[in-house]
Amino acid sequence: MDYSLKEVAGRIKDLREAKGFTQEELAEALYVSRTAISKWESGMTMPDEPVSSCAETGFFVPQKHLIYGRKASQGKTSQ
């Protein structure tokens, strides 16, 4: 299944905003720069480690949802 960097970027931004984080706040929580967050959200780069794994920020989503969207991850269990 293919994915679009722009779609992933949009999901990262949407999730960040839904959790009420600024780029700076999320960057601090994930121990990355605000510039890194900006690049992820613009589709310029992808996180080295999935941001979906950062449960302590409340930013926990299944990795498949982050990459492929909610439809693709519904009904599937993660291993």
Describe the model.
With 79 residues, the chain is mainly α. 52% of the residues lie in helices and 0% in strands. Helix 2 packs across helix 3.
Q: What's the tally of helices?
A: 5
Please state the average pLDDT score.
75
Give the N-to-C terminal Cα separation.
18 Å
- The strand count comes to 0
Element-by-element helix/strand order: HHHHH
Runs in which pLDDT lies below 50 for 5 or more consecutive residues are 72-79
Radius of gyration: 12 Å
| Large-scale geometry | globular
Helix content: 40-55%
| Major β-sheet profile | none
Question: How much strand?
Answer: under 5%
Secondary structural class: mainly alpha
How would you concisely characterize the structure shown here?
Helix content is about 50%, strand content about 0%. The chain is mainly alpha-helical and about 80 residues long.
Give short descriptive properties of this protein.
79 residues, 52% helix, mainly alpha
Helix and strand layout, with pairings?
Elements: H1 5-18, H2 23-30, H3 34-42, H4 63-68, H5 70-73
